[in-house]
UniProtKB/TrEMBL annotation, chain A:
The UniProt record lists the keyword DNA-binding: no
Originating organism: Physcomitrium patens (Spreading-leaved earth moss)
Protein name: Pyruvate dehydrogenase E1 component subunit beta
Cofactor list: thiamine diphosphate
Gene assigned in the entry: LOC112275926
Any one GO molecular function term: pyruvate dehydrogenase (acetyl-transferring) activity
TrEMBL record, chain B:
Transmembrane stretches, start-end: none
Subunit record text: Tetramer of 2 alpha and 2 beta subunits.
Keywords from the UniProt entry: Oxidoreductase, Pyruvate, Signal, Thiamine pyrophosphate
Enzyme's top EC category: oxidoreductase
Cofactor(s) needed: thiamine diphosphate
The Dehydrogenase E1 component domain, residue ranges: 158-459
UniProt protein name: Pyruvate dehydrogenase E1 component subunit alpha
Keyword Nucleus (UniProt): no
Gene3D superfamilies found in the cross-reference section: 3.40.50.970
Length: 379, 497
C-alpha cells in the first residue's frame, strides 16, 4: 500500500481534490490509503466516514448541493458526520443555522423548488417534528399538487430512533410516520455500504428523501469492497438486501435491528434453525417483492423494529405478506417492536423497552416450533 | 504648544446631548396629550428620568414604554377606578425612577462587555453595582443594602447548592453512574437563584434540558433530583424522565424539556390558567405567576415569538427569562442572530423588557422582583435578558473547543458565587464562618443525595407500562374481552401487550 502511495502521488492529490482518478481498482486503493482513517488490515470504514465521504463526493461533483443544519459547520457536525466539509467547501455551501427547524426546513424546500439540492440535517429526527409541516406539506406533496411541474430534490437526514439513555423526547423512531406519506422516499441504511450507496442515491434523486440514520451505528466499522469506495457507487432505492441466506425463517428488519437479527441468526444456526435476514434499506418504496419471495421460500415471517408496534413498519410488512403469500405461511406472522411506551430514562427500563437479541431468539424458536405451548416458549 | 484636547466635553454640550432626541420626546408627549390627558405629567417625569440617567435616551426605558401601554383604559382587565390606578402607577413610577437614577449615579464606569464583537449591550440595568463599594470606605448604611442577612444567606446557600450539585453530577457521570445527556448549569446560578427564590410554591417554572438547578431552587429535594439522574425509582419522576425531564407537580416545576422553546408555551399556558382561575373561576388569593427559562438559541425559535405575542395580548402573568450565555452548543449567538439584543424583541410586541447582568444575583433579584410584582398585579408579561455564561461545555459530551479561553476567563472572573460572597462580607451582612458553615452543610447535603441515590432501587419491571396514561384503560381491551389493565400480569411485564 505504501508503494502504491508513492507511485500514485499525482493520483492521490487529484483524488484529494475530489476527482475520480484513473481506473476503479487503483483509484479505490489509493483513496483508501489517502484517507488516514482507513484501517491498515483491509477496507473497513465506519458509517460516519461512509456518510461523510458520500456527501463530500456529491458536493464535489455537483455544486448545487449544499448542507444546512445546526452545528454542521464550525462544530464539525453534532455527531461529526459533516466533519471537514466547512473547511473544504466554505460557509456558502455548509450553513450553520440558528435553532429554527421550521424556518430552515422551509427554506431548504424553497431552495430545492428553485433548483438547488439541499441536504438538511436535523440533529435528531425528533427535532424534525418542529418542521414536519414543511417535510410533508411542502416537500412531499408539491410534485403532486403542481401537476408534476415543480419537484423538490431535497434530502432530510439525521439520526433516528433510540440512542443510549436519552429519554423520551430523543428516542422516537419515525420510520412509520414518514413511511406513510406518498411523495416521500424513506431510506434506512444499516452498514457502511448502505450508508454510502443510499446517501449518494438520495442526493441524486429528484424527489424528497428522508434519510433515517442511527446514532449508535455511526461509530461501527464495516468491511466494504472496492466498488463501494468508488465515487460513482450508488444503490438502487427501493431494493432490499438479503444479508444472510436461510431456509427456515425470514427476519425482515432495518437499521440497527439488522445487526441484532444477524447476531440472533448466528445463535439460532447453532440450534439448527437457518434464518434468512432481509435488510429493508428502504421503507418507502417498500420492497414487497423481496420480502414475499423470501417468505415463500421459508414460509415463516418475523418482523423486527425498534419503533412502537401500532401502525408500525412491521404492521405494513405483515399485512403485505398476509395479502400476497398467505398460502405459503406455515405459522402466523409475528412482530417484535419496541414497547408501547415513551422511552423511559432508567437504564433497566430502557433495555426492557427496546427489542434485545434474546427477544429475537425466543420469538424465532416460538415460530419454528409452534406446537409447543406459547407460555413455555416465552420462558 | 498646542493645548491638549479636553478629555471631557465641556459642561454646556453635555446638557445639550439630549437635544437630538427632543423631537422623539415631543412626539411621544404629543401623542399622549391628544389621546389621554391624565398620564402626560407622569410621562414627563419619567422621560426626564431617562435623560438624567446614563442610559442612552434613544432607548426609552423599557419600563417606561410599558407604562405608556398599561395606562390605556381599554382592555378586559379594568381596575375599579381610574384614580386608584393612577395613584398606584405614580407611586410605582417614583420607586422605579429612583432605581433608574441609582443606576446612573453609581454605575458610572461600567466595564465594557468584551465578548467578541463589542456589541453594545447597554440598556437599563437595575440598581447598584454589587462589585463597587462606596468610595468613602465606611460601612454602608443598612438602608442601602439590597438584602437582609437571611435573604443573603438564603441566596448564597441556593447558589452553592446548585454549584456543588452540578460538580457532583460531573463526577458521577464520569464514574458511569449517570448516562445519556447531562447539561450542567455552572456559572448561571445567579439567574436561577435570583428569580426562583422570589417565587412561592404555587408559582410555576419551566425550563430546558439544563434544568437540575431550576429544580433545586424551586424546592425539589437534592436527593430526589440525584436519584432521578441515576435512573432510580425514588427520583422525582420515578426514574422515567431523566436529566432533561425534571417534573414536580408539588413544587410547580412543569419541566424539563429536551426541545428548546418547548417550555415557553407551557409556561404561558400555566399563566393562562392562573388568570383563568382568577377571572373565570373567581378563585381568591395571589395570582400564581410562571417563569419560562430558556437560552439565547431559543430566542430565534418561532415558538418564542408566538408566545411573546399571546402573552402580551392577553396580559398573562408570565416572565420570559433569557439566559443568554452566548453559545448554543457550538453556535455563537452573534453568528445565528440578526439582532443579538434579545431584550429588544419585547418592545416589538409592546412588552416590558429589561437586560440585566446575569452574573450578579442581586441585580437579577431586583429586576425579578419588579417583574414578579407586575405579573402578580395583572400588568402582564415581562421579557428579561440575563447576560450570563456557562463555565462548562454544553453537555458533558461536548469538547468545548470553540469558545475562546479569554472569554471563559473573563466570565470566570465574574463568578456569581464569589461576587455574592464578597458583597456579603464587605457589607458585613455575614461572617466568613457563617458562609463556611453553609458550604459545609451543602457538601453534606450533596453527599447524602449521592448515597441515597446509590442505595435506591432501580425501577421494577412492572413500572415500564405504568403511567403511560392517567387512565390506564387507555391500553385498551385485550383479546379476552376485558380491559388490559385489569389483567393482573399487565404491568408486571409478563402479559402480552
Amino acid at each position: 500500500m505504501l508503494a502504491a502511495f508513492g507511485k500514485n502521488r499525482a493520483l492521490v492529490s487529484s483524488l484529494l481534490r475530489g476527482g475520480n482518478g484513473g481506473d476503479g481498482a487503483s483509484a479505490a486503493a489509493v483513496w483508501a490509503v489517502s484517507k488516514r482513517f482507513m484501517s491498515a488490515s483491509g477496507d473497513s470504514i465506519t458509517v460516519r466516514e461512509a456518510l461523510n465521504s458520500a456527501i463530500d463526493e456529491e458536493m464535489t461533483a455537483d455544486s448545487k448541493v449544499f448542507v444546512m443544519g445546526e452545528e454542521v459547520g464550525e462544530y464539525q457536525g453534532a455527531y461529526k458526520v459533516t466533519k471537514g466539509l466547512l473547511q473544504k467547501f466554505g460557509p456558502d455551501r455548509v450553513l450553520d443555522t440558528p435553532i429554527t427547524e421550521a424556518g430552515f426546513t422551509g427554506l431548504g424546500v424553497g431552495a430545492a423548488m428553485y433548483g438547488l439540492k439541499p441536504i438538511v440535517e436535523f440533529m435528531t429526527f425528533n427535532f424534525a417534528m418542529q418542521a414536519i409541516d414543511h417535510l410533508i406539506n411542502s416537500a412531499a406533496k408539491t410534485n403532486y399538487m403542481s401537476g408534476g411541474t415543480i419537484n423538490v430534490p431535497i434530502v432530510f437526514r439525521g439520526p433516528n430512533g433510540a440512542a443510549a439513555g436519552v429519554a423520551a423526547q430523543h428516542s422516537q423512531c419515525f420510520a412509520a410516520w414518514y413511511g406513510q406519506v406518498p411523495g416521500l422516499k424513506v431510506l434506512v441504511p444499516y452498514d457502511a455500504e448502505d450508508a454510502r450507496g443510499l446517501m449518494k442515491a438520495a442526493i441524486r434523486d429528484p424527489d424528497p428523501v428522508v434519510f433515517l440514520e442511527n446514532e449508535l451505528l455511526y461509530g461501527e466499522s464495516f468491511p466494504v469492497s472496492k466498488e463501494v469506495l468508488d465515487p460513482s457507487f450508488t444503490l438502487p432505492i427501493g431494493k432490499a438486501k438479503i444479508m444472510r441466506e436461510g431456509s427456515d425463517l425470514t427476519i425482515v428488519t432495518f437499521s440497527k435491528m439488522v445487526g441484532y437479527a444477524l447476531k440472533a441468526a448466528d445463535e439460532l444456526a447453532k440450534e439448527g434453525i437457518s434464518v434468512e435476514v432481509v435488510n429493508l434499506r428502504s421503507i418507502r418504496p417498500l420492497d414487497r417483492e423481496t420480502i414475499n419471495a423470501s417468505v415463500r421460500k421459508t414460509s415463516r415471517l418475523l418482523c423486527l423494529e425498534e419503533g412502537w408496534p401500532q401502525h408500525g413498519v412491521c404492521a405494513e410488512i405483515c399485512a403485505s405478506v398476509v395479502e400476497e403469500s398467505f398460502y405459503y405461511l406455515d405459522a402466523p406472522v409475528e412482530r417484535i417492536c419496541g414497547a408501547d411506551v415513551p422511552m423511559p430514562y432508567a437504564a433497566n427500563l430502557e433495555r426492557l423497552a427496546v427489542p434485545q437479541i434474546d427477544d429475537v431468539i425466543r420469538a424465532a424458536r416460538r415460530i419454528c416450533f409452534r406446537k409447543q405451548d406459547k407460555r413455555k416458549a416465552t420462558a | 504648544m498646542q493645548k491638549p484636547p479636553p478629555t471631557h466635553p465641556p459642561l454646556p454640550s453635555r446638557l445639550l446631548r439630549p437635544l437630538p432626541f427632543l423631537p422623539f420626546l415631543l412626539l411621544r408627549l404629543g401623542r399622549l396629550i391628544l389621546a389621554r390627558p391624565p398620564p402626560v405629567l407622569l410621562n414627563v417625569v419619567s422621560s426626564c428620568c431617562c435623560v438624567a440617567c446614563s442610559s442612552p435616551p434613544w432607548l426609552p426605558s423599557p419600563l417606561f414604554v410599558s407604562r405608556c401601554r398599561s395606562l390605556t383604559l381599554d382592555g378586559p382587565f379594568l381596575a375599579p377606578t381610574l384614580v386608584a390606578r393612577v395613584v398606584r402607577k405614580l407611586s410605582f413610577r417614583c420607586q422605579s425612577s429612583k432605581l433608574l437614577l441609582g443606576a446612573g449615579c453609581v454605575a458610572g464606569k461600567k466595564a465594557p462587555l468584551s465578548s467578541g464583537g463589542g456589541n453594545v449591550r447597554g440598556a437599563v440595568s437595575a440598581s447598584k453595582a454589587v462589585t463597587e463599594k462606596p468610595n468613602s470606605g465606611s460601612k454602608s448604611d443598612k438602608a442601602d443594602l439590597l438584602v437582609t442577612k437571611d435573604e443573603g444567606l438564603e441566596l448564597y446557600e441556593d447558589m452553592v447548592l446548585g454549584r456543588s450539585f452540578e460538580d457532583m453530577c460531573a463526577q458521577m457521570y464520569y464514574r458511569g453512574k449517570m448516562f445519556g445527556f447531562v447539561h450542567l448549569y455552572n456559572g448561571q446560578e445567579a439567574v436561577s437563584t435570583g428569580f426562583i427564590k422570589l417565587l412561592k410554591q404555587t408559582d410555576f417554572v419551566t425550563s430546558t434540558y439544563r434544568d437540575h438547578v431550576h429544580a433545586l431552587s424551586k424546592g425539589v429535594p437534592a436527593r430526589q433530583v440525584m436519584a432521578e439522574l441515576f435512573g432510580k425509582s425514588t427520583g422525582c419522576c420515578r426514574g422515567q424522565g431523566g436529566s432533561m425531564h425534571m417534573f414536580s407537580a408539588e413544587h410547580g416545576l412543569l419541566g424539563g424539556f429536551a426541545f428548546i422553546g418547548e417550555g415557553i408555551p407551557v409556561a404561558v399556558g400555566a399563566a393562562f390558567t392562573s388568570k383563568y382561575k382568577r377571572e373565570v373561576l373567581k378563585e381568591e388569593g395571589d395570582m400564581p405567576v410562571s417563569i419560562a427559562f430558556f437560552g439565547d438559541g431559543t430566542a430565534n425559535n418561532g415558538q418564542f415569538f408566538e408566545c411573546l405575542n399571546m402573552a402580551q395580548l392577553w396580559k398573562l402573568p408570565v416572565i420570559f427569562v433569557v439566559e443568554n450565555n452566548l453559545w448554543a452548543i457550538g453556535m455563537s449567538h452573534y453568528r445565528s442572530t440578526s439582532d443579538p439584543e434579545i431584550w429588544k424583541k419585547g418592545p416589538a410586541f409592546g412588552m416590558a423588557s429589561a437586560h440585566v447582568d446575569g452574573m450578579d444575583v442581586l441585580k437579577v433579584r431586583e429586576v425579578a422582583k419588579e417583574a414578579v410584582e407586575r405579573a402578580r398585579r395583572g400588568d402582564g408579561p415581562t421579557l428579561i435578558e440575563c447576560e450570563t455564561y456557562r463555565f462548562r461545555g454544553h453537555s458533558l459530551a461536548d469538547p468545548d473547543e470553540l469558545r475562546a479561553p479569554a472569554e471563559k476567563a473573563h466570565y470566570a472572573a465574574r463568578d456569581p458565587i464569589v461576587a455574592l460572597k464578597k458583597y456579603l462580607l464587605d457589607n458585613e451582612i455575614a461572617t466568613e464562618a457563617e458562609l463556611k458553615s453553609i458550604e459545609k452543610k451543602i457538601d453534606e447535603v450533596v453527599e447524602d443525595a449521592v448515597e441515597f441515590a446509590d442505595a435506591s432501587p432501580l425501577p421494577g419491571r412492572s413500572q415500564l407500562l405504568e403511567n403511560v396514561f392517567a387512565d390506564p384503560k387507555g391500553f385498551g381491551i385485550g383479546p379476552d374481552g376485558r380491559y388490559r389493565c385489569e389483567d393482573p400480569g399487565f404491568t408486571a411485564g409478563t402479559a402480552q401487550v
